[in-house]
Write a structure and sequence with these properties.
Blueprint: H1 6-22, H2 24-41, H3 50-84
Helix pairs in contact: 2-3
C-alpha cells in the first residue's frame, strides 16, 4: 500500500469536499440542518417553530438551485442538439 504525503492527502480531501458540495441532495440536507439549527438557536424568531423551517428549507434550497442552474442546463442541452444536427 502506497503512502500519501501531505499534498496527496490534501488533494483527496479537496476532491471529496468538492464532490459533497456538488451533490444536490446532500446540499439540500446540509442547508436544512444548518438553517434549522440556527433558527432554533435564535429562539424561533417571529414565533415560527423550527420544525416548520425544517420542512420549508429543502424546498427553498431546491428552488434556488434550480433557478441558478437552469441556464447551464439549457445551454448544455442546446449545445448537444446543435452537435447532433
Amino acid at each position: 500500500m502506497a503512502e500519501f504525503d501531505a499534498f496527496g492527502t490534501a488533494v483527496i480531501i479537496a476532491m471529496v469536499v468538492a464532490y459533497i458540495l456538488l451533490t444536490s441532495w446532500l446540499t439540500v440536507l446540509l442547508a436544512a440542518a444548518v438553517f434549522t439549527s440556527i433558527w432554533y438557536v435564535l429562539g424561533n424568531p417571529y414565533g415560527i417553530d423550527n420544525m416548520y423551517v425544517a420542512a420549508v428549507t429543502p424546498v427553498l434550497v431546491m428552488m434556488i438551485e434550480r433557478a441558478l442552474s437552469w441556464p447551464k442546463s439549457a445551454a448544455v442541452a442546446s449545445a448537444i442538439r446543435a452537435k447532433d444536427k
